[in-house]
Amino acid sequence: MACHQRSISLPSRPHSKVEEELNILEACTSSPSMTIETTSDSLRRLADIYNSIEEVMCLPTNQACSSQQRKMLDGEMERSLELLDLCNAVHEDFSELKAIVQDLQVSLRKGDDATVQAKIQSYFRLVKKAKKHFKKAAKKVTSDKEDCRVVRLLSEAREITTSLLESTLQLLAKQIAVPKLSIVSKAFQKKNPVVCKEEQLQVLEYNIRDLEDGAGLLFRRLVQSRVTLLNILSL
User: Fold this and answer.
1) Angle 104-35-54 from CA coordinates, rounded to 5°
2) Are 215 and 166 in contact (CB under 8 A)?
3) What angle do CA 47, 128, 198 make, to 5 degrees?
4) Among candidates 60, 234, 233, which has minimal Cα distance to 151?
5) What is the pTM of this model?
């Protein structure tokens, strides 16, 4: 979406609508009843919200971008790149986790318990490695100034994005690690016989594929949002 307006002073109605959508999504993301299915839906909803924020950024206005606003947007450009890197890394992790689950199903059908154990260990190692991405994630940066609404919206959306992706990895770890609700019981962790169920692994594979698709969509929206910011700053 091309953006030809320089100002980030916004009418209250579109901004308020996006703010409401962010608040609803934040409540869903922080809910203890979150599941992989709801996180997949949330990733798509978040992508739609970024599209709405982009539309808000491109609304015609009469105010020129002040030097203070330009400085804030410059900072947002830097943070948007960090978020892009984070989203891309998690998207790649989803792809690798999906491949591991696929290999796990093959090994299970062959009755190769040793390979199944190795694949599950690989799954855990990858989830643990993926969680480290968030140690470098940008902290929340907000603005209470009325003329910095876009920066505030992007800041809120960024924090929700980071929280959602991190929560998703925690949920993925529990799909195998949690007793009763897991695919592999705790007995397996004590080197007892494997109790994997292929149909559960198939569901997990499907869920990870859905997460992968959602993260890919979100990544593309983030790229477009960054392009719009660049267009604003180049005018």
Assistant:
1) 110
2) no
3) 80
4) 233
5) 0.81
For residues 3 and 179, give the distance between their C-alpha atoms in angstroms, rounded to a whole number: 51
- Model pLDDT for residues 16-67, shown as the tens digit of each residue: 788 899 999 999 888 888 998 899 999 999 999 999 998 888 876 534 566 7
For residue 202, the Cα-to-chain-centroid distance in whole angstroms is 23
Q: CA-CA distance, 230 to 124, in Å (whole number)? A: 39
User: Across all residues in the chain, what is the average pLDDT?
Assistant: 80
CA distances in angstroms from 34 to 76, 77, 184, listed in the order given? 29, 31, 21
Query: What length does the chain have?
Result: 235
Q: Which two tokens stand for residue 214?
A: 């959602």
In this structure, are residues 3 and 57 in contact, taking their beta carbons and an 8 Å threshold?
yes
| Radius of gyration, alpha carbons of the chain | 21
Single-letter amino acid code for the residue at 70: R
Q: How far apart are CA 118 and CA 88, in angstroms?
A: 26
Exposed, middle or buried by CB within 10 Å (0-12, 13-18, 19+), for 22? buried
Contact yes or no for 165/215 (Cβ under 8 A):
yes
A 10 A CB-CB count for 14 gives 16
DSSP letter (8 states) at residue 65: P
H-helix or E-strand spanning residue 4 = none
Handedness of CA 87, 93, 96, 101 (dihedral sign): negative
SS3 (DSSP) at 194: coil
